[in-house]
Amino acid sequence: MTGSVDPRRLTRGTISGRVCAADGSPLANAKVAAVAHRDDRLAVLVRGLYCVESDATGHYVIADVLPGEYRLALSARDHHAPKREVAVAPGVRAVADL
């Protein structure tokens, strides 16, 4: 036994936040994607990305996320935001507004 932990057995976390336009108004139905970042083993376990849409008030929640580092990307009509990195810890809600 090497002492390493199988990440599939870890308690999962959550990523949540709010998507807003440059003027501060909420962006409804914006797609928010979280892609495993900096850990090839995590990328294999995730097998792609987590993706959700923001609600009418611009809020989004990505639940049941394996612990690790993720890069968030936003897709919304007529809105561009820089990608953002976020770290997810077991059992913790990471907040990332876009």
What does this structure look like?
With 98 residues, the chain is mainly beta. The chain contains 1 helix and 7 strands, in the order ββαβββββ. The strands form 2 sheets. The chain has a 4-stranded antiparallel beta sheet with strand order 3-2-5-6. It has a 3-stranded mixed beta sheet with strand order 4-1-7, with no helix packed on it. The protein is elongated and about 45 Å long.
- Sheet with the most strands, sense and barrel status: 4 strands, antiparallel
- Termini gap: 42 Å
Strand content: 35-45%
Order of helices and strands: EEHEEEEE
Poorly predicted ranges: none
Helix share, percent: under 10%
Spatial strand arrangement across the major sheet:
3-2-5-6
- Tell me the total number of β-strands: 7
In short:
This protein has 98 residues and is mostly beta strands. It is built from 1 helix and 7 strands; from the N terminus they run E-E-H-E-E-E-E-E.
Helix-strand layout with pairing:
Layout: E1 13-18, E2 31-36, H1 40-46, E3 49-53, E4 59-65, E5 68-75, E6 84-88, E7 93-95
Parallel strand pairs: 1-7
Antiparallel strand pairs: 1-4, 2-3, 2-5, 5-6
List keywords for this structure.
4-stranded antiparallel β-sheet; 3-stranded mixed β-sheet; mainly beta; 98 residues
